[in-house]
Protein backbone atom coordinates (compact mmCIF):
# COMPACT_ATOMS: atom_id res chain seq x y z
CA UNK A 1 0.00 0.00 0.00
CA UNK A 2 1.30 3.42 -0.97
CA UNK A 3 2.11 5.82 1.84
CA UNK A 4 0.50 9.23 1.73
CA UNK A 5 2.86 12.14 1.36
CA UNK A 6 2.96 14.38 4.40
CA UNK A 7 2.86 18.10 3.73
CA UNK A 8 4.83 20.40 5.93
CA UNK A 9 2.98 23.08 7.83
CA UNK A 10 3.05 26.52 6.23
CA UNK A 11 5.79 28.74 7.63
CA UNK A 12 4.16 31.49 9.66
CA UNK A 13 6.63 34.26 8.83
CA UNK A 14 6.27 34.22 5.05
CA UNK A 15 3.07 34.89 3.16
CA UNK A 16 4.57 34.63 -0.34
CA UNK A 17 4.36 30.83 -0.64
CA UNK A 18 1.86 28.50 -2.26
CA UNK A 19 1.25 24.88 -1.47
CA UNK A 20 2.24 22.56 -4.29
CA UNK A 21 1.03 18.98 -4.36
CA UNK A 22 4.54 17.74 -5.22
CA UNK A 23 6.80 20.24 -3.44
CA UNK A 24 4.94 21.42 -0.31
CA UNK A 25 5.18 25.18 0.46
CA UNK A 26 7.23 27.01 -2.17
CA UNK A 27 7.82 30.47 -3.71
CA UNK A 28 5.73 30.84 -6.85
CA UNK A 29 5.41 32.24 -10.35
CA UNK A 30 2.62 33.86 -12.28
CA UNK A 31 2.70 31.81 -15.49
CA UNK A 32 0.59 32.52 -18.58
CA UNK A 33 -1.31 29.60 -20.08
CA UNK A 34 0.50 30.02 -23.42
CA UNK A 35 3.84 29.20 -21.78
CA UNK A 36 2.31 26.58 -19.48
CA UNK A 37 0.87 24.66 -22.46
CA UNK A 38 4.10 24.98 -24.45
CA UNK A 39 2.47 27.11 -27.19
CA UNK A 40 4.81 30.11 -26.73
CA UNK A 41 8.35 30.58 -25.43
CA UNK A 42 9.07 32.60 -22.29
CA UNK A 43 9.59 36.30 -23.13
CA UNK A 44 9.55 37.83 -19.64
CA UNK A 45 11.12 35.95 -16.77
CA UNK A 46 11.81 37.21 -13.28
CA UNK A 47 13.01 34.77 -10.64
CA UNK A 48 10.66 33.84 -7.79
CA UNK A 49 11.95 34.14 -4.25
CA UNK A 50 10.59 34.02 -0.72
CA UNK A 51 10.07 37.80 -0.98
CA UNK A 52 8.91 38.23 -4.59
CA UNK A 53 6.47 36.50 -6.90
CA UNK A 54 8.19 35.53 -10.15
CA UNK A 55 6.88 36.07 -13.67
CA UNK A 56 7.00 33.66 -16.57
CA UNK A 57 5.08 35.21 -19.49
CA UNK A 58 4.95 34.92 -23.27
CA UNK A 59 5.57 38.00 -25.43
CA UNK A 60 1.85 38.66 -25.97
CA UNK A 61 1.05 38.63 -22.24
CA UNK A 62 4.24 40.51 -21.28
CA UNK A 63 3.43 43.32 -23.75
CA UNK A 64 -0.05 43.90 -22.34
CA UNK A 65 -0.46 46.67 -19.79
CA UNK A 66 -2.88 44.45 -17.85
CA UNK A 67 -2.72 40.75 -18.79
CA UNK A 68 -6.04 38.90 -18.83
CA UNK A 69 -6.43 37.29 -15.41
CA UNK A 70 -8.07 34.28 -17.08
CA UNK A 71 -4.79 33.65 -18.93
CA UNK A 72 -2.64 33.53 -15.77
CA UNK A 73 -1.98 30.66 -13.38
CA UNK A 74 0.01 30.23 -10.16
CA UNK A 75 2.73 27.60 -10.19
CA UNK A 76 5.43 26.75 -7.63
CA UNK A 77 9.04 27.60 -8.44
CA UNK A 78 10.18 24.00 -8.83
CA UNK A 79 7.36 22.98 -11.18
CA UNK A 80 7.93 26.13 -13.27
CA UNK A 81 11.72 25.75 -13.47
CA UNK A 82 11.81 21.96 -13.88
CA UNK A 83 8.77 21.29 -16.09
CA UNK A 84 7.33 24.38 -17.76
CA UNK A 85 10.39 26.40 -18.84
CA UNK A 86 12.23 23.41 -20.37
CA UNK A 87 9.10 22.53 -22.38
CA UNK A 88 8.30 26.08 -23.56
CA UNK A 89 11.86 27.37 -23.96
CA UNK A 90 13.12 30.93 -23.63
CA UNK A 91 12.63 33.59 -26.32
CA UNK A 92 16.00 34.55 -27.78
Please outline what is shown here:
With 92 residues, the chain is of the alpha+beta class.
Structure description:
With 92 residues, this protein is an alpha+beta fold. The strands form two sheets. The chain has a four-stranded mixed beta sheet with strand order 4-5-3-6. Strands 1-2 form a two-stranded antiparallel sheet. It has a domain of 59 residues. The protein starts with 17 loop residues before the first strand and ends with a helix. The protein is built from three helices and six strands, in the order βββαββαβα. The model has no long low-confidence stretch (mean pLDDT 86). The chain is globular and about 40 Å long.
Order of helices and strands: EEEHEEHEH
Main β-sheet description: 4 strands, mixed
The overall average pLDDT, rounded, is 86
Describe the global form. globular
Strand order of the largest sheet: 4-5-3-6
What share of the residues lie within helices?
10-25%
Query: Which ranges are low-confidence, i.e. pLDDT below 50, for 5 or more consecutive residues?
Result: none
Q: Helix/strand/pairing class, anyone?
A: alpha+beta
Approximately how much beta-strand content do the residues carry?
25-35%
Alpha carbon gyration radius:
14 Å
Number of helices: 3
How many strand segments? Answer: 6
Q: Roughly how many Å apart are the termini?
A: 47 Å
Oligomer: single chain
Amino acid sequence: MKKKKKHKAKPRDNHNLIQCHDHSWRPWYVVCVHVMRGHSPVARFSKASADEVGECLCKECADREEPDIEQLKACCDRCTEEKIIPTAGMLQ
